[in-house]
Amino acid sequence: MSITDKRMLDFRDILKQTRRIRFYTEFDEKLGILKSNLSKIRSGKESFHFTVHHIKIAVNDFGANANYLFGVSDEVFRKK
Question: What is the separation, in whole angstroms, between the first and last Cα of the chain?
Fold first, then answer.
């Protein structure tokens, strides 16, 4: 699993833990990613990954710090 895939999955958990989303499906639906594809990303067995489009949505709609998602920073959320 790539660092970006791991960080996107971690970010999804952080959103839920901090109550920025109520259900994981809020994030999944906004990204347009199927539950079966999330399983494939987690397993790393197939060539499924989060795309640049998914990352852009995480940044624009959920306030993710792109540098965090790419493994450059430990700051999860963008500064306002």
Answer: 30
Question: Are 11 and 69 in contact, with CB atoms under 8 Å apart?
Answer: yes
* Residue ranges of the chain with per-residue pLDDT less than 70: none
CB atoms within 10 A of CB 69: 23
Distance CA 35, CA 24 (A): 10
CATH fold for domain 3-69: 434 Repressor (Amino-terminal Domain) (1.10.260)
User: How much is the pTM?
Assistant: 0.91
Whether 57 and 15 have beta carbons less than 8 Å apart is answered as no
Q: pLDDT tens-digit profile of 46-65?
A: 889 999 999 999 999 999 99
